[in-house]
Write the structure tokens for this entry.
Amino acid sequence: MDSLSSLNPQQRTAAEHVNGPLLILAGAGSGKTRVIVQRIAHLLAEGHARPEELLAVTFTNKAAEEMRSRVQSLVGDDCSALWVSTFHALCARLLRREAPAIGFTRDFVIYDSADQLALMKQVLRELHVDDGLLQPRAALSRISNAKNTMEARSSLAESAAWSLRGEELVKIYDRYTAALREANALDFDDLLLKTVELFDTSDAVRTRYSSRFRFVMVDEYQDTNRPQYLLIQHLTARHRNLCVVGDPDQSIYKWRGADVRNILDFERDYPDAAVVQLEQNYRSTQMILDAATAVIRQNRHRTPKRLWTDRKGGARIVHFRGADELEEAAFITRTTRSVVAEGGDAVAAVLYRTNAQSRVIEDALMREGVPYRIVGGVRFYERKEVRDALAYLKLILNPLDDVSLRRIINVPARGVGKGVMDQLERLPVEHDSHDTPLLADALADEPPATSLWAKVGRAVDGRLLTTRATAALRAFRELIESLGEMAKRESLSVAISRVLDQSGYITDLREERSEEAQGRLDNLMELVSAAREFEMREPEPSLAGFVDRLSLLSDVDEEAGSRDARIWLMTMHAAKGLEFPLVVISGLEEGLFPHSRANGDDAELDEERRLCYVAMTRARSRLVLTGAARRRVFGEYQRTEPSRFLDEVPSELVDRIESPTLSGYQRADSGSGSRKGRYRSEPEHVPFSYEDEDQSVTPVRIGARVRHPTFGVGTVLSVEPLTDDLKLVVRFGVGAKTLRAKYAKLEPA
DNA sequence: GCGTGTCAGCTTTTT
DNA sequence: GCTGACACGC
């Protein structure tokens, strides 16, 4: 069904392009994925390249998998030799082969953001930087920014807006970098930087890969950063068959170092480039496209483009403003539910600016029994127990990994507490390790003596600590060594089970006999299942490969909720590249969207607006914008003003609905008078009740029978006074629940 | 050394 | 409203 003849002339030109650089400027919904897939298929079918000579780069694993499967279904042949990968996974793969060329061993570990944070905390502690003065997160963000933009390390010294002296920051940077090296670890940013360094330093490597990849394609090119740009330059140096696809209006990752100039200057980089503009939108109605266009038009510094659709007319945009976020959530529930009621396989998306917004919406959907799926922000792999398990695996693979060692040396408790750790750290560094270059150290049989692992060894062999501490450390060393041996013999999933078992982790949780512990056990079982799945899918499953995969899993690669749910929740960032018949964009309030962090910064406001454009153009037929007149932030209610983006949508395209519970002064059209358009009450729905800030809490006694909207009728087991509220434990049919009297919406039963 | 409880700080967006 | 850091008691 899908074939070249199904493409429009521009799409076809792009798909049939073979040699030389190609820039595809693809407006929202213009079918760019189809074009890339068709082009790959075309190159293969016409014999221009074998699968292993093609490289396609995306930003998420999900996008990569989808691309591979679409090529697969088009070509029919086995496409496993195709390189379809994220930037980071590509770099990890290259470095696993070539790491020694830049002074790392092949068994380096990847530090994800949690590892980075742990390492930075350690660094700040070592340098005696008061973390009140410089939060570890802030330091990391500054360093990451420097790496992503490849600014010189010395430029950190000139950070004027910094609460700490610039030279301090340089010191922190240096120590952090050194600590990564000593741990034989690379952080996310390093994966890119070190790969660029690899290509810069090794002619052999550069020749090998730039010869190999005859054709390279990069999706979402407007969101590439400097190291990614350089990496692509290296990879395409030989054949120059680079095809990039993107849309400057959809650049939304500047905060991560993305530089839209990469796409804007493509024709300067490649004067001989063919340029194709995809301007027909196949996705949205005219109504939606008009609204989105009107918003993005407000941005300064942009090249206007003519995006058009033949889906004339369409339903008007709906804007609902509730009294608070609970009303907003209730409205969203009713609206999206209609999609479920229609049957078929249509999906509605609920988009928000910040992950924190999902909670209220989830609650509302759950209360109504509407199944939903949440994309990103799920953090299965950030759960404590999963991270602990991962830390064991990382340590087995690379004993130099201090962050992982620190994490699990006393989990479960085995008598190595703070006291022992302090003494261990204070062990003098062995003599020769000081001036030996890291390369030699890392390649030597013995790990560098600076690592905690080495110190454990030294403390045990030399009996440098108390008998008790020595015994505990010896047991730990033997455990890790034997697990390491075992992991070499056993399959991946068996190895993980054994690690959990022999470390005492499972036993410890089992003995707890709490619901929480059971949940953790379930999560660990899920990790083992993930390993089993990995074994079946990968041609050569290895522990290192599995750990890499987990480290490089992006947020949007993770999902939770019912698999077949037809309501999807995600951030607007996560929605990039997707489309839905119905899209709800929530939280259209000043300070939330556009986010307050962008306030007063025109460039950042432009980026928020592009994000709004991305979100709006996800909609095929219906677009609903929602907000609330007040919203709880950190538990406190705050009044909000409607988002400026609402003003930017022509009022004749919008049906406005206001909650009947909004009081006069909260109404948007009574104040400045700037907001036009008629408001009407939402038809066919009952006004909501919600509690006021100053509402007193109804007294509840132990033994009272109460009714809860979700859990039904129950008995109050305990009452505990809090400031302004009561904490209740109530036994329902489904079990005991802890509730706050103020929010639980209990009625006497 | 370990487990529990309290309090503060926190939230953009993500590879 | 949740998480992590620290303080306290055993």
User: Anything to note?
Assistant: The radius of gyration of chain A is 28 Å.
